[in-house]
Fold:
Amino acid sequence: MIKQKWLWGILLLVLIASLPGVINRWHAESANDNYEVIIPYQEIATIVEESDLTADEVLSRLTDAGLTSVSVEAVSLEDLEKQNVLAIYEESELANSLLFTQYEGAVDTEETGYYVTIPEDSYYQNFITDHLQTEEVTVAGKPFYFIASSTEDFEVDMPFGYDQSIVDQLDAQGLMVVFRTTNIESDSAISKIVQQLVELKGDNKLGLLGSGTEVIGFGHPDRNAWLQDLQQAGYSFYTIEGSQLKGEYDLAKSAGYDMIRLHSIDVNKQTNLTVNESVDRTTRAVKERNIKSIFYHIKTKGDAEENLDEAVLYLTEVQDKMPTHFTLGAPKHFEKISVPAWVTALVLLGGMIFMYLISELIKVNKLRILAVLFMAMLAVAYFVLNRVLFLQAFALIIAVLTPIYAVIKSANGSTRIRDIFVQYVKGIAISLIGIYIVVGLLNGNGFVTGYEVFRGVKLVYVIPIAGIVLFALFQVYEISKNGLKGSLNTSVTLLNKEVKYWHVLVLMIVAAVGYFYIGRTGNSGSVTELELTFRQWLENTMYVRPRTKEFLIGFPFFVLALYVMGINKKWGTILLIPGVIGFLSIMNTFTHLHIPVSVSLLRTLYSTVLGFVIGLVFIVIYKICVHYFNKAKTRWS
Structure:
């Protein structure tokens, strides 16, 4: 016991000494308090086309409501044709239109390509000739630009440059500009786009947001040079939450993870999304997931002016409901989160000590030493090979074992509330140590921006429950009572017992509950409408909502388990199985490394406090049920 206390003391000192790493992350997250709202220009243009409003009037209304930025896409000849700037004809199409006229045969159909009418505006004339390989020809007395089919990878829908007139219009409104970039096959076209982007860069030209499936230049030999030019020009790069492009990871790594996290809200795809729901999604993304940019789509169907009114309402409501410590403005990169090697080494050392303490559960010294040696091998491998995978493996082991250890170590039953509270705090404290080790190891800009992640989330949900189920079996059937040989004999006896129909039924129910439980984990889990409403109420009331599986299920059942163990140890031990859910869930909260540490701490504080209070309510309900059960039993006996 004395030796173990010394180990706990050393562990705490080691972890305290490693605090600078986590503190640096806290400061970086706290300092990054700007957010922006982007609307695509083409949707603004749609409102202008379908209403009596001018572009300046629409932009002015949106800006007054809180719009900060507008995205601009590179245009193609096809886009300019839709804007009635020019007309495009294939050689066969133009030749056919001249049949039975004096100009029949004026078009050489042997030379395939596109004939483009020359725009009246000299700006568009220069725009086209500067970016495309054109030849000016005259057909039927009318001048055309001819673009041969042999031109490198040219298509009429290929983006070839940004419309300066649109950029100037946005400048005049004081709006920031985000350029959409797409990967195209033509090397020369990309080169010219990159050159134009470098020339366009200014204080209000913030960054580059990819579209399609690939980062600009992906698969091209000059990709690195192009990206370097854009970085040196001062552009920031955006990453769309849940939609990483091909080549984006390498881009982020080369940029030192200086990426701006963006969340997209598309009311044209999610047609049932209300303004209030869009606002709630926006505020949640900014305050809970380190999102610094919201890409909001204006409705493109229905009455244009009503769609504009809805966008204005959305922008106004976002400002009203956003917490005051967030500022509407240009998004910033996270400050560099410095995690010196000695800090990582201390956290790894703390993890090895913690593993030795956890391994007391197996009560075999050789296995305890082997467990620590394995963790030491992972630590050495990380420093020798410089692969984050070894840190992720180390963190995963700590993450799945911590809830098991926290529950078993604090499973000392009592009917006294004071004793239950002490054991409850003990379990939470053990969990926080494991959580700190995971957060301390998986630290840095790569994790905060979401490019490096905790691996094995599903295992954190499954292994702790399986571990407590085994613990309960060992306790209920006293499997380990007579040493290893006795344990084997008891296990064989259990396995040889006849399987009843009700056994199968119970297993089916457990399997169904397990399937439902696992299916609800992660971001895509199904949630009922009632639960969504309850969650939103909690969020509006408490800034961040505690997880229902923690404060309504896991922690209350753990408190009840401690109480019941003071009366009947076997039944109380069985109640530890749902009780472990609270502990594994708070571990899972912190493994979402793109969520600010402060938010995860607040969420966990709410869960643990509410969970204990509701656990006391569970005890009262249990007492009432036992009272009436005993009363009924006496009456009918």
In short: The longest strand covers residues 259-266. The chain has a mean pLDDT of 89. Residues 33-75+163-328 form a domain with the TIM Barrel fold (CATH 3.20.20.150).
